Amino acid sequence: MQMFIALIAGLLFGAGLTISQMVNPDKVLNFLDIAGQWDPSLILVMGSALVVFGLGYHFLVKPRSKPLIADQFFIPTNKIIDKPLIIGAILFGLGWGLVGICPGPAVSNLLGGNAKIFGFVIAMLAGMQFSGTIDRLLKKS
To answer: What residues does each domain of the chain span?
Structure first.
């Protein structure tokens, strides 16, 4: 049941990204270009996502002691803003600003067969592997 619900959620997420054009790097880059051809339409996408999350959390999650299809909630407890978090956020923002795509839309875009998207996903996976390797090496020393 959990896998089925995860599949449905993933399909809804991918469909939402596609319909809203968040999978279109040009649309995203125009949204980020506030000094040029700024396209504010993605504010509506992000704002509506926050409203849906806020209402869902308030009415469906907050009153419950446990989720419907799991034994417990997994809520992050780490509230520390540290150097790795800041560096990661900066790298994510730079990557998003340079190419106009982030991991969620990249995975959704794989079905389109665009060679640039395949290149992005390969680079993203390599970066994740490299990051994990660096992290393990730093923890050993």
So the answer is: 2-140
